[in-house]
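Appendix B, example 12.
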Amino acid sequence: MKKYIFSALAIAAMMVSCNNQSPKMDDQPAAAASGDGLKIAYVEVDSLMTQYTFAKDYSVTLQKKSNNARNTLNQKGNALQAAAANFQQKLNNNGFQSREQAASQQAAIERQQRDLQELQARLENELASETAKFNEALRDSLQNFLKVYNKDKKYDLILAKSGDNILIADKKLDVTQDVINGLNKRYKPSAKPAADTKKDEAKTEEKK
């Protein structure tokens, strides 16, 4: 019998571990640069994810949710595996009084397997939904801040640098720390991420 183990969503795996180093809070802007009449800057997405307090808080919430779901599924998967092993042992030892009794227990195990598959799908969808909410909230937060930030900076273009999507760029175009400092000053830690305000589905399942 296949053991069902919760497969964490790729987006959750991409949430890097929180960096304990707090950014130095200051109002000094990063150096600006212009070329061909354009004033351009970029923001390092990886640094944003590890230093923006909102992103770190939400990352912890999503990780807890993922761990709870995985533990629940592993427990139910182990119970299913034990039931299947017990059924097979009784079958091998002629432990059933009738074919009907054996068929009834086999049907119960199959229902248990279907329930586990449905639970896994539901929990994965729930985590995907929470991750999508986080991505949307992060994007809105960044865009709203940049609208205010750029009133004074007046950049023609601010790029998101992630991995090697920008192959080469002058470091003086990097405004990442300036943006992170500004975002953290605006962030209200008391406002819990949306994922933390919902009742955890995995915990509910554990109590059943």
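Helices lie at 10-13, 45-51, 53-92, 99-153, 176-186, 194-197, 201-207. Residues 1-35, 194-208 have pLDDT under 50 and may be disordered.
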